[in-house]
Amino acid sequence: MRPNRIRTKTAAKIFGVDVPYLIEKVRIGKYPIGIYEKHGKRAHIVIQTNLVAQYLGRTMKEIDAAVEEIEGGKVQ
Predict the structure, then answer these.
(1) Coil, strand, or helix at residue 74?
(2) 18/9 Cα distance (integer angstroms)
(3) Which domain of life is it from (predicted)?
């Protein structure tokens, strides 16, 4: 079973934006692709693969291929 999470940096590359921009859009709810949590001054974001695929209108296979290409390794 593969994980349902991807790195924020990888998701930003898939969307074609910078990481801070992606975090801000998830925070305000413009991109419903994950969970935004704030603990004190630090923010934590959890990007879910299935939500990215659904939002972009792509299949999970296409998202997995993009993640593999960006990260340079096999998707588990």
Answers:
(1) coil
(2) 8
(3) Bacteria
Residue 12 in tokens: 């930003």
How far is the C-alpha of 32 from the C-alpha of 54, rounded, in Å? 10
CB-based contacts of 43: which residues, under 8 Å, 6+ apart?
A: 23, 27, 36, 37
Question: Cβ–Cβ contacts within 10 Å for residue 39, how many?
Answer: 7
The partner residues of 47 in beta bridges, in order of sequence, read: 6, 34
pLDDT by position in tens, the chain (length 76): 467 899 999 999 999 999 999 999 999 999 999 999 988 988 889 999 999 999 999 999 999 999 999 988 665 5
